[in-house]
Amino acid sequence: MINLLRSLWKSDQPRKTVSLQHDNIPEHVAIIMDGNGRWANRRGLPRIIGHQNGMKAVKRATIAADEIGVKYLTMYAFSTENWKRPKDEVDFLMRLPQEFLAIELDELVEKNVQVRMMGHTDQLPSYTIAAMEEAAERTKDNTGLVLNFALNYGSRREIADSVKSLCNEIQAGQLSLDDITEDHITSHLLSAGIPDPDLLIRTGGELRLSNFMLWQLAYSELVFSDIYWPEFGREHLLEAVAEFQQRTRRYGGLT
Ligand code: IPE
Ligand code: IPE
Ligand code: MG
Question: In sequence order, what are the residues at sequence separation of 6 or more whose Cβ sits closer than 8 angstroms to the Cβ of residue 126?
Answer without folding.
Answer: none
